[in-house]
Amino acid sequence: MELIKKYFPTLTALQIDRIAQLKPLYEDWNAKINVISRKDIDEFYCNHVLHSLSIAKLYPFNPGDKVLDIGTGGGFPGIPLAICFPDTSFTLVDSIRKKTTVINGVVEALDLQNVTVLNDRFENITERYSTVVSRAVASADKLVKYTKNALANDGKHIFLKGGDLTIEKNEFTAIYKNAKWLETNLYESLPEPFFETKKIITVSW
User: Fold this and answer.
1) How would DSSP label each residue in 92-142?
2) Collapsing DSSP states into helix, strand and coil, what is residue 198?
3) Measured in whole angstroms, how far is the alpha carbon of residue 142 from the centre of its chain?
4) 170 to each of 95, 137, 164, 165, 203, how far by Cα in Å?
5) Is the CB of residue 118 less than 8 Å from the CB of residue 91?
6) How far apart are the first and last CA of the chain?
7) Least confident stretch, 35-39, 59-63, 118-122, 175-179
């Protein structure tokens, strides 16, 4: 929790309380339905919560924005972002029912009124969103291909990824020649060891 307070010192008491509840909630759910590895549970606030909130460091959402989190897994980055942006609507999508069961349980426990959870394949989503976010679900070209119908005309994709993305970028720009690819190293804004190879990719049109 101290890492979260360090990098997000303006969080409200309610937001801090909800974030503090996340780890025990996921530990409880993990005992029933394994969605987070033991190693990541031990480093939960850095590897999951702070990683999710790194998007907020660069791209704070506005009231009324609609955000789609595709392949959300256990609810990341969507749930931490939803806590920090209560006036933004978040739709979290995953095709694996046990994962959406966990997410629904966490959302209900925290009374997150701005979150909708869908058990579906993200390529089936046709409602329009201002931003599509994802955390290392697939290559950028596939993520864009399968969510083009869900992105508003002036919207953008934000992907949390890691490592050398040269090949992925070249493949993407060869297909989407008019797209703008912006690659930002997270270590610059979050100088913790975990973030040394972590990046945010923003694709806009």
Assistant:
1) EEES-HHHHHHHHHHHHHHT-TTEEEEES-GGG--S-EEEEEEESSS-HHH
2) strand
3) 17
4) 29, 18, 12, 9, 13
5) yes
6) 36
7) 35-39
pLDDT in tens, 92-103: 999 999 999 999
89 forms beta bridges with: 66
Determine the length of the chain. 205
Could you give the domains of the chain?
Answer: 2-204 (3.40.50.150)
Q: Which amino acid is at 73?
A: G
DSSP classification of residue 49: I
Phi-psi region of 17 (alpha: psi -120 to 50; beta: other; left: phi over 0): alpha
pTM recorded for the entire structure: 0.96
Q: Report CA 124 to chain centroid distance, whole Å.
A: 19
Q: Is 179 helix (H, G, I), strand (E, B) or coil?
A: coil
Contact indicator for 160, 51 with CB cutoff of 8 Å: yes
Q: Which residues of 156-188 are buried (b: 16+ CB within 10 A; e: fewer)?
A: bbbbbbeeebeebeeebbeebeebebeebebee
